[in-house]
Amino acid sequence: MTATGKILLLHGGLLCVLFALQFVLPAYHHGNLARIMVLASYAVGYNILFGYTGLLSLGHALFFGAGMYGMGLSIQHLGFSPAPALLAGLIAGVAVSTIIGLLALRTVGVAFMIVTLMFAQAGYLTVLYFVDWTRGDEGFVIQQAQRILWGIDLSDPSNRYFAALLLFSISLLISLWLVRRPFGKTLVAIRENEERVRMLGYDIQAHKLGAVVISGTIAAVSGAVYGLLFGYVGASFTAVPHSILPLLYVLLGGTGTVLGPFVGTVFMFYLIDLSSGITTAHMLIAGVVLVAVTLFAPQGLVGELRRRLWRWLP
Amino acid sequence: MTDSPKTTSTTPKGISRRGALTGLAAGVGAASLPMWARYTHAQTAAPIKIGFQIHRTGIGAAYGRWYGRTTDAAVKVINDAGGINGRMVEIVAEDDGTDPRRGAEVVEKFANQHGCDVGFGTLFSHVVIGSAPRAGELKLPYFVVSEGHHVASGMLNRYTLQPGITDVKSQVQAMAPYVANNLGKKVTMIFPDFAFGHDHRDYFSAAIEAQGGEVLAQIAIPPAETSFTKYFPKIPRDTEVLYHVMVGPAVLTFVKELGEFFGPSRPEMFGFIDSLEAVDIASPGLEFLEGTYMWEGMCREAQPDATEHAAFYRAALGVDARGASISDPTDVSTYGHMFGCWETLHVIKAGMEASGYAGPDDRTKLIEAVEAMSEMPESQAHPQGAKLFNGKTHQVFGHQNISRVENGRLVRVHRTSIEDTLYPDEVDYTTQSF
């Protein structure tokens, strides 16, 4: 079988398995997987910038929040229905990521990390500042009646699961398609040797900006969908810890692998969930396991799989 | 470029179809490992499971620790007296990290994994607001102990109730008559510039004006501010009362800098105990609070006229007369709020007994039984005092206390009536279907 065939079989197989799990999972894990798929989509977006382009952002919560608040505020204050609200979230994501990209890409390396972190913190404080619109730190509820998309009640567990699966499938396929296209390969080349790519005549800034916008927009749509599926829009989703989460997911799952973000999200989610059932010091367990994974699988779980077994993994 | 550049679609090593399928099957099996755990339905003789959403970590940890102790004490009392409908009560505690996302996940865990009968105990407003939609969708009665106005404002749903602690709107409103009549009518407010502070700004401003007073200035402190000196010159000179609400660790700096700014000649000061819960009022740096006034839900210091129920409650918690742990006097409690856990658990007990609650199928009966409650007399179940529950708004109302700091101790100087705390209904949850 060709590498392309294997890739299509594996990724298509994962989506088929996720589809099938809808019918067999117990209620708790069914709900978890819906949440995981939305968070994994966020991580897929992050991976395009970090894993494939080599730009470490510490401010992706700003993009996630832009989508979430773009959606939520348009429902809350403009009376939008879910479809145009999702579009508003997407537009907010494109706009914010374009502006941040144009500004932050004037820096490189550690400065890029710090600048993205600062922009995200500014975004968080903006949410708190406009408390009359956003309800600040408390956030607000998207009521069940406001979450009916084309007659489909997104608060229903099955509908929520399929909506999350649809988002994840689109994100995954975009990621897979992108990294196999010349644009994606150029991003990888930039990650590996920026100067050589520049010497070959590629427009580095345009490619990086493209990566920021695609990555930020996927994160924003994930934020908008998260708010719509789980009925809450809050400032904590724009705070620094929420910028660190996708970094952890991607590092654990495998930097620069298409499946890594999903595997990392599942791993991290259940690591915290299961360890909290064992001890109140569950963060200690999570920390030790994370250190162990970093030590023994430095390329992440999927990255290690690629290194040891399946070299064809994208 | 490095010697061996990484690519994204290399195929250096072939793999058989059988190998791929074996690997895929193993991967799916491994991924679903944690999903094999299933919950069992509660049997009639099985304990009643109460999911306790506890702030063990995060900004609410100090509150969470004492909410946990209060909950354990209340459950012991309930179980020693025979439990609920002859069944023991079991607390299933899960840390929510004082985070709304984790909070919602914890609610799902209560409903779908642990098979809890109800959820209970959440304090911080953003966690309540983030979790309540999921509780409603999962049809899990969700008893919060938050003091936020979010329940009575109509923002949440029929499955969310707050029967054990009063909300901020009623607390703030009830302070205005005492402030206007005893401390002064010209008030300047200092508050954090986010939702909690804005609630105080809006509700107190309206209430003090209704008492013939006026708010001279409203000084909002931006979030994450660490020094406050530059805001103090904005306080008008003719201010008679400084109304302050600060939250988080910055309150100690706030008090210290306020003392340095005013020196010995300060206006009267009135604040809320919220930011000084779990903090010894006699701590170094808090001397400036001497002679100032504080709201308390329940008086931290044992009062001379404490009822037998209040004394029983204090003893059951293992808290001394100053509000600290008997085993560790430096471990000061969150006494002004944590009674809410005790009283809420007793309301759950009363509701389950009134509805003949037997299992999750009776959850709606439980909610209807609680909605039918009205007067709750002072008792062992309600040691803070009598309460009035509003079934339409799912919110309880009760007496409030004002204490004065005297020689580093909180001495109660006023106790409001329940009527002082009432306001018109803003929602009728009973019109919502289950």
What does it look like?
The complex is a heterodimer of chains A (314) and B (434). With 314 residues, chain A is an all-alpha fold. Chain A has helices at residues 3-24, 27-52, 60-78, 82-104, 109-129, 131-134, 157-180, 182-192, 194-199, 204-230, 240-253, 260-276, 282-296, 301-308, and strands at residues 140-141, 148-149, 152-153, 232-233. Chain A has a two-stranded antiparallel ribbon with strand order 1-4. In chain A, strands 2-3 form a two-stranded antiparallel sheet. In chain A, strand 2 and strand 3 (152-153) form a beta hairpin. Chain B is an alpha/beta fold. Chain B has 2 domains: 5-166 and 335-398, Rossmann fold, CATH 3.40.50.2300; 168-296 and 400-421, Rossmann fold. Chain B is built from 10 helices and 15 strands. Chain B has helices at residues 17-31, 61-80, 100-114, 125-138, 168-183, 195-210, 250-262, 308-317, 335-355, 363-371, and strands at 48-54, 89-95, 118-120, 142-143, 160-161, 186-192, 214-221, 241-244, 268-272, 293-296, 375-376, 387-390, 395-398, 401-406, 409-415. Chain B has a 7-stranded mixed beta sheet. Chain B has a 5-stranded parallel beta sheet with strand order 2-1-3-4-5. Chain B has a 3-stranded antiparallel beta sheet with strand order 11-12-13, with no helix packed on it. The longest helix of chain B has 21 residues, at 335-355. Residues 1-15 and 28-43 of chain B have low confidence and may be disordered. The interface between A and B is large, with 66 and 60 residues.
Compute the number of strand runs of chain B. 15
Question: Total strand count of chain A, please?
Answer: 4
* Biggest interface pair, counts: A-B, 66 and 60 residues
Shape, principal axes of CA atoms of chain A? globular
Biggest sheet record of chain B:
7 strands, mixed
CATH-defined superfamily of the largest domain in chain B: Response regulator
Number of domains of chain B: 2
Instruction: Please list the strands of the largest sheet of chain A in the order they lie side by side.
Output: 1-4
Radius of gyration of chain B equals: 25 Å
The poorly predicted ranges of chain A are none
The CATH topology annotation of the largest domain in chain B reads as Rossmann fold
The main sheet of chain A comes to: 2 strands, antiparallel
Mean pLDDT of chain B: 87
